[in-house]
Amino acid sequence: MIAAKRILTTEMIQKIEALAPRYPNRRALTLPALHIVNDELRHVPLAAVVEVAALLGLAPADVQDTLSFYEFFHQDKPTGQVRAWVCRSISCALRGGEQVLQHLCHAADIKPGGTSADGAITIEAAECLGACDFAPCMLANKDLHKNLTPESAVAFLQNIRQSIRSTPPHAH
Amino acid sequence: MQPFSPVLLEAVGLPTGHTLASYKSRGGYAPLEAILGGKKPADVVDMVKASGLRGRGGAGFSTGLKWTFLPKDHPGPIYLCINADESEPGTFNNRILMEDDPHQVIEGTILSAFATRASTAYIYLRYEYPHSWDRLQTAIDEAYTAGYLGKNLKGSGFSLDIYLHRGAAAYICGEETGLIESLEGKRAWPRIKPPFPAVEGLFKKPTVVNNIETMACVAQIARRGVDWFRSIGVPADPNNPRDPGSYGPKLYCLSGHVEKPGCYEAPLGITARQLIDGPGGGVWKGRKAKAAIPGGISMGLLTEAELDTPLDFSGPGKAGCLGLGTAAVVVIDETVSIVDFLHNSCRFFAHESCGQCTPCREGTSWSLQMLERIKAGKGRLRDLDLLLEIGTSMGMMPGSTICGLADGAAWPIKNAIQKFRGEFEDYIRQTNPTGWMVTEPVSRLAIVATH
Q1: What is the share, in percent, of chain A residues with pLDDT greater than 70?
Q2: Which of these three, B281, B301, B333, is where a domain ends?
Q3: pLDDT at A2
């Protein structure tokens, strides 16, 4: 076996430590730390859980216990470059949210929760996004897409794919 | 109805309404400066108690009274948590307050921290509101620069820090002790009460958890006075000594099948029909309403005939609903199958049950499995009785769970079946002509995973 590569970068650790004075103990840094890792890696692999635990003075099981409660954090592989949450709760469902989700997943050839083969997009069914005045809606990364139709959702997917094709992938 | 101009939403539509300059030009932060200049914390508590303000997050508990549960002369620290984990389906008023007038929320938070002697306030903001995060953080930075946050505010000796804390997409974090557990870095499992957070809350210290809209109300009470606040809304029922009244303006979120969905401010006590036909522009496409959710999906259902129910803290309860909740009115038109509505509701709660208490974890999934089966044309009339049995046996009211999530799951089930039983029976008979009468146990369908 090759030696395990460190997952938390110095920059991530600095960001986590910068938040430490806000809380009276280090366990409260768990969610902020997981978010900082997820913002960079788009998932939180088990090895990162171990490193976060060591940084916070916790057992890895403590961090994994917390992480596994929030479905938000993927662990096996990174989510797509765009993470799209399509609302399926009542206000959106009444205005066609389920159809938007179906069309989008069909166009991306995945099931809800899946990531497209090209890694461009992860589509997830969301519970109420709190934008019922713009139903049906979708949160894609930090952008709220309002009053969607199946057509506008599929057009959004095509735009993402085009912009990803025209930018070269990161050299790792 | 008498004309009413928005107060909590006065900044909506102003291009720079979210800035400190705009907020101050509207009279903001002047009340805070006056209070820091010579009032005592007890004065603010008395003011909020006298106003009759009831928490806007859903439970409607008296805000001032909640503050008085904190132990006297506690050496500290005392924590204030602001609940911005707005996740009740249909609700988005906190988002609008945070995006369009964040300083109103922050002034209310500072005043509340002063009243409760908290020196640290955490705003627990749901992950799904990145724009609110940016607006709030910018406003907090502005407030630090202006000397409204930090050490020894305006020479009063009172110090306060406000921190934003990001959630991770879990409905249960809106329950106050779930929120506290999540803030501490744990699974958001609600705590058994007592001890109540006011005695032992965040980091085992006395803690108050208040909603974003409540904070906005505190800021407006400080600016406009107790008499102004009490002049709006529904006074206490003189025949019911336990009714504290429903005072003040309220943000109603109108969505679903209306022409103009949106967040509208109105005096507490406006009826659902007035909201729908007034600011809502009527039911969409010229159709008729079949039902409406009175205050977020967990409150249950009003039928078309019950739309004249006043939406104050005690109104929806008289129509068999759980309560006013978040005052999010979701209109369902006559073309919607009530089976589809209940399926959506059960799916939500099965997904969001935290899994800690067995009646809720099992009850919400079981009810979803039955609704899946009914929708697939394999329903039995007996399922309706089973659903009602689940609905009446899980929750804090029957006393079988720690928090109220299960009551929220139960109410749509009970209301839908009790108020629309005929439609359920027709649906089951028509879609399952050979099996509707079966009473022996049947296995669940292999369904698509909902999680």
Answers
A1: 94
A2: B333
A3: 57
Provide residues of A within 8 Å CB-CB of chain B. 22-25, 27-32, 34-35, 65-66, 69-73, 85, 88-91, 93-95, 126-135, 139, 142, 144
The answer to whether residues B222 and B121 belong to one domain is yes
Q: Residue A124: beta bridge partners?
A: A85
Same domain, B204 and B269: no
**Which site among A85, A111, A127 would you substitute to test the B interface, given the most B Cβ atoms closer than 10 Å to its Cβ?**
A127
Whole-complex ipTM: 0.94
Nearest CA to B107 among B179, B33, B176, B43?
B33
Determine the distance in angstroms separating the CA of B91 from the nearest CA of chain A, rounded to an integer. 6
Mean pLDDT of the residues in chain A? 94
Low-confidence ranges of chain B (pLDDT < 50): 1, 451
- Taken in order B58, B64, B65, B71, the sign of the CA dihedral is positive
Query: Which one of A73, A126, A139 has the shortest CB-CB distance to B168?
Result: A73
**Within a domain: residue B218?**
yes
Is A34 in Cβ contact with B330 (below 8 Å)? no
Residues B260 and B351 in one domain: no
B336 contacts in A (CB within 8 Å)? 94
pLDDT at B135: 97
> Measured in Å, how far apart are chain B's first and last C-alpha atoms?
46
Q: Which of A89, A161, A133 is nearest to B352 (CA)?
A: A89
Looking at the fold, whether B279 and B360 belong to one and the same domain comes out as no
How far apart CA A111 and CA A172 sit, in angstroms, is 29
Beginning with the edge strand found earlier in the chain, give each strand of the sheet holding A143-145 in spatial order. A121-126, A82-87, A138-140, A143-145
Q: Which residues of B touch A34 (CB under 8 A)?
A: 168
